[in-house]
From TrEMBL:
PANTHER family: OS05G0424000 PROTEIN-RELATED (PTHR48017). It holds the Pfam family Aa_trans. GO terms for biological process: amino acid transport. It comes from the Eukaryota. One of its GO terms (cellular component) is membrane. Coiled coil: none annotated. The chain crosses the membrane at residues 41-65, 71-92, 168-187, 193-217. It is found in: Membrane. The keyword Transmembrane applies. This is Amino acid transporter transmembrane domain-containing protein. Keywords: Amino-acid transport, Membrane, Transmembrane, Transmembrane helix, Transport. Residues 40-269 form the Amino acid transporter transmembrane domain.
Amino acid sequence: MAREMQNNTMSIEQAPETLQNSDIHKNLDDDGRPKRTGTSIVTTASAHIITAVIGSGVLSLAWAIAQLGWVVGLAVLMAFSFITFFTSTLLADCYRAPDPVTGTRNYTYMDVVRAHLGGIKVQLCGIAQYCNLVGVTIGYTITASISMVAVKRSNCFHKHGHYVKCSISNYPFMIIFASIQIILSQIPNFHELSWLSIVAAIMSFAYSSIGLGLSIAKVAGGGHARTSLTGVTVGVDVSRSEKVWRSFQAIGDIAFAYAYSTVLIEIQAISSLPHPTHIYTIYY
């Protein structure tokens, strides 16, 4: 009798602890991390996607199409779009391993490669990824400096006239932009600033809309606006060597605008949706 009372007492004393543990598990995902719930997570992930897709790379797409022409330009645009679609589909399915729905989560691109390939392929893919990230970083730095120089040259033309040679170097603006990036990169848990992603998404829509509006106004206003199926004309607009160089530069600009799949795994890692491809379909 005494033993039964002791067992009942122990069970009663352990009940609150058991309930507390069950509450803790309710607040955790299958990977032991805090549960990814609420519209804020989806909003943050969507903002990340919008910022990655409509990044500063879209600013140079108009120039790229002008160099390549409507035929080659649209073909290259569709080709890189398909490549991004295909690679994003693969990455979305590789987010969990071995099962794409119930498998263990992979939080980074390297985790995905390690889970599915392993061996020396992890190092090789790591080198490829970091080279890609370095290239994208260089592209953003150049694009930012060109944009700042364009603003300063525009102010110079408005002040002194369009016949004045306003030569401005890009290098100081590259240094300024890189310095700001180095300072911002020191902020701990920078990726958790959800409001920053929302602001960046709004800015992406803003300057994309401004660029589209200026293009429409230029074409509607007539003047010297000219489009071509084959791009800039050799002997009229540029020389043969300039045509080749600008064509490759335009292809690089279009490829730079499709850097979305590079950060797809990290975006999926913050998703609260049951299957990672759902967050991927928000864009597509």
